[in-house]
């Protein structure tokens, strides 16, 4: 069975996939429809989740935060224009890389110095950064859920407790 950090990340992947599967049932017009909300469209929120996770993976792999964020920003224009199906493929590639990174680590409590261009230096652990990725995704999946209701649609359950009872967790035991 995966360790706690891997399990949290697996939850994040599962929750993203549940949202993506639901969004694939919508028209592309609705997926990209401009709204008055925290983000201007559902597609922008999902792209944001992807781009932030992309940057954090580079940081986990040893790139400094400013460079990782610049790499992510360079992708933004391309990613935002992706169809939901194309973004799903990008998420799959990214999560495969992320899981490979996680399983290759001997010590997820390893401390590193994080140099945030806006907040300064902070010592943190690899596991704490993964927790941030998972928490960030949860927060913005909530934005997507609210925006779907604004569009007159329902959302899907992505709570961590709901994940416990999903097939992928039950088969890990």
Distance between the termini: 7 Å
Mean pLDDT: 93
Order of helices and strands: HHHHHEEHHH
- Describe the global form: globular
* CA gyration radius, whole angstroms: 16 Å
- Look at the helices and sheets and give the structural class: mainly alpha
Oligomeric assembly: single chain
Strand order of the largest sheet: 1-2
Can you count the beta strands? 2
Uncertain segments: none
Estimate percent helicity: 55-70%
What portion of the residues fall into strands of 2 or more residues?
5-15%
Number of helices: 8
The major beta sheet can be summarized as: 2 strands, antiparallel
What does this 3D model show about the protein?
The chain has helices spanning 4-23, 28-31, 42-60, 65-80, 84-104, 126-150, 160-164, 167-170, and strands at residues 111-116, 120-125. Helix 1 runs parallel beside helix 6 and helix 3 runs antiparallel to helix 6. It has a two-stranded antiparallel ribbon with strand order 1-2. It contains 8 helices and 2 strands. Strand 1 and strand 2 form a beta hairpin. 66% of the residues lie in helices and 7% in strands. The protein starts with a helix and ends with a helix. It is mainly alpha-helical and 173 residues long.
Note the topology:
Layout: H1 4-23, H2 28-31, H3 42-60, H4 65-80, H5 84-104, E1 111-116, E2 120-125, H6 126-150, H7 160-164, H8 167-170
Antiparallel strand pairs: 1-2
Helix pairs in contact: 1-5, 1-6, 3-4, 3-5, 3-6
């Amino acid at each position: 069975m995966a360790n706690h950090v891997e399990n949290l990340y697996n939850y994040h992947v599962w929750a993203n996939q549940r949202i993506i599967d639901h969004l694939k049932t919508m028209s592309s017009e609705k997926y990209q429809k401009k709204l008055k909300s925290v983000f201007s469209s559902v597609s922008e929120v999902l792209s944001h989740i992807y781009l932030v996770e992309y940057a954090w993976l580079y940081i986990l792999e040893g790139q400094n935060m400013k460079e990782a964020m610049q790499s992510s920003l360079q992708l933004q224009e391309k990613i935002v224009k992706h169809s939901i199906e194309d973004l799903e493929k990008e998420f799959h590639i990214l999560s495969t890389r992320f899981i490979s990174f996680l399983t290759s680590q001997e010590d997820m409590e390893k401390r590193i110095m994080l140099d945030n261009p806006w907040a300064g230096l902070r010592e943190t652990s690899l596991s704490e950064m993964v927790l941030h990725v998972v928490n960030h995704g949860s927060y913005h999946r909530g934005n997507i859920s609210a925006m779907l209701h604004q569009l007159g649609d329902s959302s899907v359950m992505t709570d961590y407790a709901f994940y416990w009872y999903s097939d992928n967790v039950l088969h890990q035991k």
